Amino acid sequence: MQHMPATVEEQLILKSIREECLWENLPKRLQASLTTKEEWYEVLKKFSISCRVIDYCIRKRLQWNTCFARKVCKEGEYYEEMMRYLRRSLALFPYHLAEYVCRVMRVSPFRYYCDMLFEVMKNEQPYDSIPNFSAADALRLTGIGRNEFIDIMNKCRSKKIMWKLNKSIAKELLPTQPVDFSIEPWWGVCLVNFTLEEFKKLTEEEMATIDKICLYKRGLIYFDVPVYPDDRFKVSRLEGFVSNREQSYEDPIEELLYAVFVVSSENATVAELAATLQADLTQLQAAASFACRLGWAVKLIDPDSVLRDSNMPSLPANILSDDEDGSNTSINSEKSGPQVLGSGIEKTKANF
After folding, report:
1. pLDDT at residue 46, as a whole number
2. 50 domain-assigned
3. Structural domain harbouring 12
């Protein structure tokens, strides 16, 4: 997962690294540029270490700007590789990384799970091949559960030769918009980096109610479910839980979810629970946030947390930026943080 080689030498180096070429088998041009055999083996060593660092950070679902991967690869490359890994593994959507995945990459949880379902259908894998939590979250957002999955597959197979020749039939039977689901009042609503052209296509009603669900269905906003160290939660019934296979990949957040269901207490804060489980606090916060998304945990609201949430930044007055030719215009730059929308319509109008 390195940057695209810009020169012939870089292309040769990358090709030779992938083929694990010995010094004697290197192209003469490379041998001349590297000078010595020891220098070549040092290049191989550094590349191998970089790959292991990136692989470790991805498996731990670490944020690029806080992990060692930032020393060996670019931010965009890191998250692109992570999303490829998650898709291959049919893993849970990385909500705790939504600031980049949703806002910058424009990968919504709904689209992620639709693509996942399509891949499973295309490869004619059974519904049980989707891990428990991924299946439950996909059901929440797409409305596709076991029965719906089987129904779509039966429709595809009924087309016989057409299905064998064109697997995209399954994609046409998947939903185009997320289903309705409950939204808690303490959730945050964040804008993605949408373009000026997308902004111009918004209707007056959408602009007047920019913090409403209509923009979520168009993939222009995503929800932030904030969990703080001193928050407390009540675990409710696991309604909507899908009993499929256990995940075969490493996911610290999924592993913590089971522990949360077993040992959580209304009297214990998230920080205290992390100490009890000897778990990483940020990962436990991500696990608790996911449980709230699916309605498996209820946040116990106290006045202090309400006051704290009310101090979250509102949408800035000037959110449009335009370059000289207007072709790459976007709302919010990649460098800026996610914007949290206010809940009042008048406030939203003023910001626009």
Report:
1. 72
2. yes
3. 8-73
